């Protein structure tokens, strides 16, 4: 455990601390969905650190302290989290979520994020989406849904997000404070892509609802959009 708080790892420090054998979050008993999610959310960014410290009437302090002191701080300090610490969190989620399979089964990352963010830590939804002019939807992460596309062999995240939004007729209502995206590459049985290239920056200009954009013909502010 590491009760002292540590900042997220950046640049050379991230490479030094996180690269190599016995680094990251140790897997055990189908924990990969949670290990990957926790590593992505906390190892190199502080955008969700409010989950670790924010007082809330809905917040479960025990789960918050396990997440902060047994997982996030050790990961940032030494680059390694042992499987027992994640199992401690999984046991607490089993108690709170009324689902006995959190300690042994492979789960959907979205189910884990919704449980810990909404029901246990009580943070506000991170995304506001609108589909085809219908009612707005609040959510914590966005899962990419795509039919198999032959022209995408090794796609990057930018391509996947844009095509997924287009196929679902989705728009972001506002710029999100944090945009958690679940790739279409998970589960034991089937993976749509053998590899996905991380986009180091994500351009969401075309994904924003009613965002002023340049006309590709004349250069003025566009008044029509062609999908």
TrEMBL record:
InterPro entries: Papain-like_cys_pep_sf (IPR038765), Peptidase_C19_UCH (IPR001394), USP_CS (IPR018200). The keyword NAD does not apply. GO terms for molecular function: cysteine-type deubiquitinase activity. Residues 24-204 form the Peptidase C19 ubiquitin carboxyl-terminal hydrolase domain. The keyword Hydrolase applies. Its main location: cytoplasm. Keywords: Cytoplasm, Hydrolase, Microtubule. GO terms for biological process: protein deubiquitination. SUPFAM superfamilies: Cysteine proteinases. It is found in: Cytoplasm, Cytoskeleton, Spindle. One of its GO terms (cellular component) is spindle. It holds the Pfam family UCH. This is CYLD hydrolase. It comes from Urocolius indicus. The gene is Cyld.
